UniProtKB/TrEMBL annotation:
InterPro entries: N-FG_amidohydro, UCP029730
UniProt protein name: N-formylglutamate amidohydrolase
Keyword Hydrolase assigned: yes
Record keywords: Hydrolase
Gene3D superfamilies with a match to the protein in the record: Zn-dependent exopeptidases
Record flagged with keyword Hydrolase: yes
Organism expressing this protein natively: Pontixanthobacter rizhaonensis
Highest taxon, organism lineage: Bacteria
């Protein structure tokens, strides 16, 4: 990251087209935000949605889907939370204590990271007036802190507005994938960014969760970027016809 902005924008949105948002794409931690955790944990799912940065970049550079991409770790400030959410500045994640966040100045993190990220996104979306937003996330195949079966390869999350998700669930299924419906997390409980920037404005969206072991390499990210583009385009067409 070349400056203190908590986001970067790649590509020019096509007005009335499809755009991408990636809240958890980075594991960057500013030097003046000591988390007090082993460095190797920054490559763990607790710090970053593994694979999403590569996919979002490729969507913008190769497939014409401009992207608004986070440039700080979720451990610094979770941009996919409301301002008053308990996990906004996490003190624990999947069994790992984040000692540097205990007693952190949350208002400072909001002012420095969360608010600029969402203000910029709001302005970007208002100018783009997109027909569809792709909110890109990834999930770990297994948690360290809880035994849980996670058989899905990809999943769609949503809160009240499932009109786009319904099409995408079917379309990913047509590719022979095991598709989760509001799994492994429910968008009815955790959908902050799309609640704010999509549902509140009547904008259709796809919150796509991809299993991290399927998108660890550049080749896999390229494959999934093409697949996400295909599903998003077909979903946009289906919405037009409905």
């Amino acid at each position: 990251m070349t400056d203190d902005r908590p986001y970067r924008q790649v590509g020019e949105p096509q007005k009335g087209g499809i755009v991408c948002v990636a809240d958890h794409a980075s594991n960057f931690v500013p030097e003046d935000v000591p988390l007090g955790i082993p460095e190797h944990l920054l490559d763990n799912h607790i710090a970053i949605d593994i694979g999403t940065e590569g996919i979002a970049d490729r969507l913008a550079r190769r497939h014409g889907i401009a992207a608004h991409i986070a440039t700080i770790s979720r451990l610094v400030c979770d941009l996919h939370r409301t301002e008053d959410a308990p996990g906004l500045v996490p003190t624990e994640s999947d069994g790992h204590v984040i000692p540097g966040n205990i007693g952190a100045d949350i208002e400072h993190r909001l002012t420095r990271f969360h608010r600029p990220y969402h203000t910029a996104m709001a302005e970007w979306l208002a100018a783009a007036d997109p027909e569809l937003i792709v909110a890109l996330h990834s999930f770990t195949p297994e948690l360290q802190s809880k035994a849980e079966d996670r058989p899905w390869e990809v999943a769609l999350l949503y809160n009240q507005d499932d009109r786009a998700a319904r099409h995408a669930i079917r379309l990913f299924g047509d590719h022979g994938l095991t598709v989760g419906d509001n799994q492994p997390y429910s968008g009815k409980l955790l959908n902050a960014t799309m609640d704010r920037h999509a549902e509140a404005h009547g904008r259709p969206y796809l919150t796509i969760e991809i299993r991290q072991d399927l998108i660890a390499t550049k080749a896999e990210q390229a494959r999934w970027a093409a697949l996400v583009t295909d599903v998003a385009n077909q979903t946009a067409l289906a919405l037009k016809g409905s």
